[in-house]
Amino acid sequence: MITFPLAILAVVLAGAACTRWFKVATNKAEFLGLSVLLGSGVVTLLMFGTHALGFALEPRVYGGPVLLFALAGVAGLLRGEPLVGWRALCRPSSLVAALPFQLLTAFLVVVALARGLLIPNRFYDSITSFDLLGSIMAREEVFRISLFDTTTLAQGGGTYPPFTALSFAWGYQCGAVDSTHTILLPFVGFLFWIYGAARRRMGATSATALLAACLASPDFFAYLSTPLSNVAVAAYGALALFYANEAARLRRDRPLWLSGAALVLVAWTRTDGLAVALGVVFALFVVRGAVRSWWRPFLVPLPALALALSWEWFASNVLGRGGTSRLTMAMGWDAARLRVLVAGMGIFGLYPASMGFSSWGFVPALVSWWATRRAEDRVLWVATLVSFLAYTAFFYFVNPETQADLQSLLRSSYRRGLTAFVVPFWLAAFLSPLGGWVRARGAELFGVSRPAPPASPSS
Amino acid sequence: MGAFLADIPWGQVRWLLEAREDGFGREAVRLLALGKDYQVVAFLRERTPENAIILLPDPDLPGPLDRLKARNVRWMTYFLYPRRFLHTYEQDVAYFRDATWVLLDSPESAHWIPPEIRPSFEAGDVHCIRLNVRALMDAIERGQVSPRYRPPRSSIASGSGS
Q1: Fewest CB within 10 angstroms: A257, A451, B78, B111, which?
Q2: Is the pLDDT reported for residue A88 higher than 50?
Q3: Residue, of B147 and A418, whose pLDDT is higher
Q4: B90 and chain A: CB distance < 8 Å anywhere?
Q5: What's the rounded Cα separation, in Å, for the pair B87 and A146?
């Protein structure tokens, strides 16, 4: 079927319209990544919105608004001011330095895409069953599918916000025979965004090295190429942290609203991703001079919070999972639980076979920030650190029956969610004083006369 | 333009389009990649009606099928959707007694089947038998069927589920 590539094109163009709407100056890679990521979020929001108005969940209904968005995206691309261009990637002097990173990145991307194409998601779909729910939503053309009524098997997937299942649903409804392309779409967008966001602040060689470092983190590589919700949470969380920092650095509001939109999509994907919202608000509120007024940080997560609360209400009252929620919370002091949690944080946070060397880059970066008292990018590291701690603390309050249950919970859920911090950790490591020093020494080593950093976008 | 159209190998294009319809041998790839578990899927797709309710073997008992694949409710539902799948220990599900098909892959998984209709598992055979579960459950509750042994996980033989 030819309809599926066209649907992907429409979704990306709708994302381009949304990206234009925030009027944040971007480079091309960043713009493409933002278009893919925001587009795949917006199409699911439109699906759910039209369905909530009473229409069937079918492409001829939600395709209308998506096509309108796509037309707006085309119009924006045609008449908008040109984007900040690519810097010369293959300047002879920097090619020598960049080549190993380019080769590593190319190898890892090819292997990740091949893995995602050849090993469909449903082979590992026994826990959350997004693929199953999406395929049945596509066939029954309703959100509240019959499986919710008659079996307990949909409960796991039913507890998650609908982004992931609806992504699979529009893929199947628009003619995809398999779920592989649906999974790879945000992954590819995320790769473009990582490069573009890094390119905004550093040279091409360093940006390629950052991309290679992210891809070489084992859990990032393993989880991002198969299940969709990890890609989305990692991407939207990184977007929220990065643009909050850009808003503080450039003293502009527009990146702040883009950060808020990313938080909305985090809440639309997985509720525990709201730890990122906590980190962003805390950093913007605490860091002196980050925003122009004290109440501005509290506006940023409001739409995300509203969406999360509405989803919780909908899931418990309309989907009817209220009595069967397996999650119970415990608020009291429990030293044994804390010990298990701290051990798990050390194991999964610092172990290179899990997070790669991202946390090993992040900790010296924190030390160098502290030692130099540099104020630049303070929002980035404060927000990342607080998000990480808040995400860990969430598992302290989850109350499983035994400590073995908590350990298995850390092994499955906590470790999976930690992949969202790989990119922020590496971004912070590369942007820290220590990272800047290392990058400068590398440039000296290869005799690169450092070009001026890419023109800092004005907003 | 005419010459251009004439140069296109329409036969190969049609072959490609036909191959596209079954996903370039997707079924064959699935059979190769998933083995016995996908053989079960293909078998059930061919042999059972779409409204069938099928009992799967208990994943905790020994058997040749993978507990994450052909013994997994979600995995089987993905491929065979309008059909419903259940495990024998899920007796509190409303339509458990309406089940009409039972998938069996080992003597252990068939322990609750009465001996006169219990199939043999000589060479690692997998059977899907048609069975009136409601009548069998009634017989078990009346004490007319006495299974040989009762593994701890499955409660169907004890008749305590209703």
Answers
A1: A451
A2: no
A3: A418
A4: yes
A5: 18
Q: What angle do the packed helices A378-397 and A335-350 form, to 10 degrees?
A: 130
CA A135 to chain centre: 23
Lowest mean pLDDT among A178-187, A277-286, A394-403: A394-403
Angstroms from B154 CA to nearest CA on chain A: 18
Contact A135 B94 (CB under 8 A): no
| Contact status of A122 with chain B (Cβ, < 8 Å) | yes
Across the interface, whether the CB atoms of B77 and A139 are under 8 A apart is answered: no
If pLDDT is split at 50, 70 and 90, which confidence band does A323 have? very low
A139 touches chain B (CB under 8 A): yes
Measured in residues, chain A has a length of: 459
Q: How many CB atoms are closer than 10 A to CB A168?
A: 27
Question: Could you read off the pLDDT of A201-229 as tens digits, one per residue?
Answer: 988 889 999 999 999 998 888 877 667 78
Chain A CB within 8 Å of residue B10 CB: no
Q: Do A147 and B26 touch (CB under 8 A)?
A: no
Interface test with A, best of B32, B37, B74, B91 (most A CBs within 10 A): B74
For chain A, give the percent of residues with pLDDT over 70.
Answer: 85
A280 and A383 Cβ atoms separated by less than 8 Å: yes
Size of interface A-B (CB pairs under 8 A): 38
pLDDT tens-digit series, residues A253-285? 999 999 999 999 999 998 888 999 999 999 999
pLDDT in tens, B1-15: 677 778 778 777 777
Overall pTM surpassing 0.80 (yes/no): yes
For residues A16 and A39, what is the distance between their CA atoms, to the nearest angstrom?
7
Pick the closest to residue B119 from B135, B136, B105 (CA basis): B105
B23 → chain A, closest CA residue: A177
Which residue in chain A has the smallest CA separation from B78? A132
B42 touches chain A (CB under 8 A): no
Whether A81 has a pLDDT exceeding 90, the answer reads no
B93:A150 CB<8 A: yes
Please give the mean pLDDT across all residues of chain A.
Answer: 86
Percent of chain A exceeding pLDDT 90 equals 49
CA dihedral A315, A321, A324, A325 (to 10 degrees): -10
E-state strands within A324-383: none
Question: How far from B136 is each of A122, B49, B86, B144, B161, CA to CA, in Å?
Answer: 34, 21, 16, 9, 13
B94: distance to nearest CA of chain A, Å?
Answer: 7
Closest CA to A377 of A297, A283, A254: A283
**Residues paired with residue B87 on neighbouring β-strands, in sequence order:** B56
Structure tokens given for A351: 């172990």
In this prediction, the residues of chain B whose per-residue pLDDT falls under 70 are 1, 18-24, 144-162
Please say whether the beta carbons of A309 and A316 come within 8 A. no
Q: Residue A386: what pLDDT? A: 97
Q: Which amino acid is at A186?
A: P
